[in-house]
Amino acid sequence: MPKKAQPRQLSVKTLYTLLVISYLTLLFVWLAGFRYWVSYPADMAMAAAQQQRGIESLAQALSLAQEQLQIMTNDHAQWDYSWDFIHSSHDTNDNLSANFIVSTFASLSLNGVMILDSTQTLRAGYRYSNGQLEHYSGTTDHLLPPILQTVLLGSTPATAMTLIDGFPTMIAANPISRSDGTGEGVGWMVFMKRLNNTMLGDFERITRLNIATVAITDPALGFDEPVTSAMISAIRCLQDPFEQPVYCLKITDPDLSLPHLLNMNTLQEMLIIGAIPASLFSIILHLIITPLKVANSHLLRNLKLGHLKELPLTQSFYITEIAQLANSHNQLVATIRDQNQRLEVLSHTDALTGVRNRRGFDRMQERAWYRLCRNPLSMALIMIDIDYFKLYNDRYGHQQGDQALQQVATALSKLARRTDEEIARFGGEEFVLLVYADSREELEQLCTQVTNAIRILAIPHPDSDVSHRLTISMGAAWIHHGGPWLGFISAEEWLQLADQALYLAKNNGRNQYRVIDVASLRPAAGSDSADGDLADGNTADKGFAGRQSTSWPE
Q1: What SS3 class is residue 503?
Q2: What are phi and psi of 220, to 5 degrees?
Q3: CA distance 397 to 385
């Protein structure tokens, strides 16, 4: 009888070796597949998203620069002297010449100004280069960029990017009108500003990017072209309104590192995991999966709630790479939060005076109204208007007018001393002050302090009808011991009362203040507040008896 064949036997060492080889092979295949199809595309997508955010931040910086140029152009276009110059037969104007000087071009970083009539004939032109200012006039066929000739076919303010003398130049054009906005259609005010290395350096500081100029590429991708694949550097081109490339920029994010499909660290990790005995495999999986679950859960929670919070680094973050990723995420969150806070501050701050703007005032008034409706606090909302400020601007020009506004804002800011007291620029030459005033006497004393602060500035104003110095008119709406009784009016109506008081002060001769006591407008018990004095606007006699108006001596 033949011997039965014995099954092939393997030694423990051989079996262990085969198992280890099989394990390492399967592990390599699995890790390589996961890296190739899942994590690597995700990393590349994150890198592309980071690069896209950098390009968008640069695009926003460029847009902001164009917007600021448009604002400057508008300030000079809506000016009586510009309007009068277009209607005159002279090629020069003393007020224009005094305004367009070397210091003006240097401080505003301008490279050229053109004043055109309605037929696009050049009435006055200025070209600034290397510290020299050149004045010229006559035909503009050789000076006016073709793209601007197209822009001027419309009747609304416009901006464009084009090449002038081989340099990329931002152009802003605005119809010329009187200072009050009437008389449009008589001509154009055109400002030109080169995109030079200084401006690129400012953009680098704002966006934290490295920016270099390159030759126009083919295809020339605009800033609205999305990043489809992350690269070390991206090239985007500035385009004119016809989407033709004007200038190309090479954009590099120094914080961006492109992921590699396989690197030495990945191979080392695979070998280490393969060398660990099978009995420890579950522990290793636990050490890897747990922090990822925590991080993923945290990110999903952030996504669901729509906010960003740092990832808490608990004891489950044993793996260095995962902890580094968490730290990088937290640093990114901190950076985004800091940038959002800065943007929040900028969005609520008046760029000229440094005090709150209208948007900031609305937020400030909302908080103050919330406190007043729930607490027995006494507070006044004071509207302040600089008397005959248009005449001041017409005499001294917008630059000195801006300096006067800055001086007034600084003086008013010193009067908001207590917590929650604020000063804001309401618009143009109007300011608004929110202050605590526990008594009528304290409010009148504060109004006197305000006018004294402006008088101390001693700003000359020979065109004023009330004084030879700059003066103000004020209107205050005073709430004494707030509380639920304020339900008969709204925060907007509180502002309207201050505006009515300001109107009374100005109508009574300016250089004075009027105060309306909100409590005096409170409807009687059982009456309908909608039919009261507030609804009819009859607030002229609701202020302080015998103290409704006060003017100050010179």
Answers
A1: helix
A2: -90, 105
A3: 19
CA distances from 134 to 44, 72, 97, 140 (A): 52, 20, 12, 15
* 318 close to 286: Cβ distance less than 8 angstroms: no
As to burial, measured by CB atoms within 10 angstroms (0-12 exposed, 13-18 middle, 19+ buried), residue 128 is buried
Could you tell me which of 127, 122, 126 has the C-alpha nearest to residue 85? 122
Identify which of 535, 515, 531, 524 has the alpha carbon closest to the alpha carbon of residue 445.
515
3-state secondary structure of 352: coil
Residue 149: how many CA atoms within 13 Å on its side-chain side?
11
> Cis (ω within 30 of 0) for the bond into 254?
no
Report which of 475, 472, 447 is spatially closest to residue 461, judged by C-alpha positions: 472
Q: What is the DSSP string of 137-176?
A: EE--TTTS-HHHHHHTTSSS-EEEEEEETTEEEEEEEEE-
Per-residue pLDDT of the chain (554 residues; tens, 9 = 90+): 556 666 666 544 455 566 667 777 887 788 778 878 888 888 888 999 999 999 999 999 999 999 999 999 998 888 888 888 888 876 666 777 778 888 888 888 899 998 888 877 888 888 888 888 888 765 554 455 666 666 666 678 888 888 888 888 999 999 988 888 787 778 889 999 998 888 899 999 999 999 998 888 778 888 888 988 888 899 999 888 778 888 899 999 998 888 887 767 666 766 676 666 555 555 655 666 666 667 667 777 777 777 677 777 665 556 676 667 677 767 777 777 776 666 666 577 888 998 999 988 898 899 999 999 999 999 999 999 999 999 999 999 999 999 999 999 999 999 888 878 899 998 889 999 999 999 999 999 999 999 999 999 999 999 999 999 999 999 999 999 999 999 899 999 999 999 999 999 999 999 999 999 998 888 765 554 433 343 333 444 444 432 334 433 33
State residue 266 phi and psi, 5-degree precision. -65, -45
